[in-house]
Specification:
Length: 271
């Protein structure tokens, strides 16, 4: 860990990745390079979408930024501190929410706060506020199995928000939802994001989702994942998915992805 005096980046940078690589070791004799040479700067409040073929290391990058795994090469910094362990400043939301079925919605939302040792009344109030932001106060006392898939994902977002994270790491959070619910959840996420001032790193396979959400789309190459290019999206929100600009962006992103997806398939066939 670098000392404060040798910090290479400003504490104003939300996330900085420098030369980040990850090699998974599968057994004793085979190393598996998932990510290589990733350089990425994320500004506070910025919405970044990560797009790339299956297996190119998008989830791996989120785990590294979350501090759940160590980098094999390079360094990651968040708000001026080297990332070495998980922190409540960086919340990870998965495709499948892992709500505790035996706890009520508000108890699920405040679970992280109980680990922090906050008193019950403060936890319940924090949970209420977070649930208000996702429009689920009425469901406070329900159990997860009484909720729809979309509602459960909103509870997962509320649970992350209750910790007041500076960075939200979202790994295909809406992939299991139907098309209409997904579109609603995108609108909902943009509202929550605007109010929270958090930076978001959002993994998806859907080009339309990237066009709807991102300030910048980071496109990865096929494995080992490197950044192929970064496409800024300078379009006011809410975005009209049928506008000529949205259409042109979808075409551009599809073309950028096509070569990498073909490469990923060719590699899989060769194995
Ligand atoms: N814990 C692990 N141990 C060993 N290998 C892993 C581990 N996690 C991921 N990998 C491997 O690293 C590579 C990148 O995986 P990762 O899940 O990050 O890719 P991805 O781009 O998120 O894929 P997808 O879009 O299919 O979810 C894959 O080949 C995967 O098998």
């Amino acid at each position: 860990m670098a000392s404060r005096s040798t910090k290479p980046f400003s504490s104003r940078d939300a996330v900085v990745c420098r030369g980040v690589g990850k090699t998974w070791s599968a057994g004793t004799d085979r190393a598996h390079v998932a990510l290589r040479d990733v350089d990425l700067d994320v500004a506070p409040g910025e919405f970044i979408v990560l797009l790339g073929p299956s297996g190119c290391g998008k989830s791996t990058l989120l785990y590294l930024i979350a501090g759940l795994e160590d980098t094999s090469d390079g360094e990651i910094w968040a708000f001026g501190d080297r990332v070495a362990t998980p922190s409540p400043d960086r919340s990870l939301i998965f495709q499948e929410t892992s709500l505790f079925p035996w706890l009520t919605v508000w108890q699920n939302v405040s679970f992280g706060l109980s680990i922090r040792g906050e008193p019950a009344a403060a936890r319940k109030e924090a949970a209420r506020q977070a649930l208000q932001r996702v429009g689920l106060v009425e469901a406070m006392d329900k159990r997860p199995d009484e909720l729809s898939g979309g509602m459960r994902q909103r509870v997962a977002v509320a649970r992350a928000l209750a910790m007041r994270p500076k960075v939200l790491l979202m790994d295909e959070p809406f992939a299991a939802l139907d098309v209409q619910t997904r579109a609603k959840m995108q609108d909902f996420l943009l509202d929550v994001w605007r109010d929270s001032e958090a930076s978001v790193l959002f993994v998806t396979h859907h080009i339309d989702e990237a066009v709807a959400l991102a300030d910048r789309v980071v496109i990865f190459t096929a494995r080992p994942g490197r950044i192929k290019t970064i496409v800024p999206i300078d379009m006011p929100r809410p975005r009209d998915p049928f506008s000529a600009q949205s259409e042109a962006l979808r075409k551009e992103l599809t073309e950028l992805m096509r070569a990498e997806v073909d490469r990923a398939f060719a590699e899989q066939e060769a194995v």
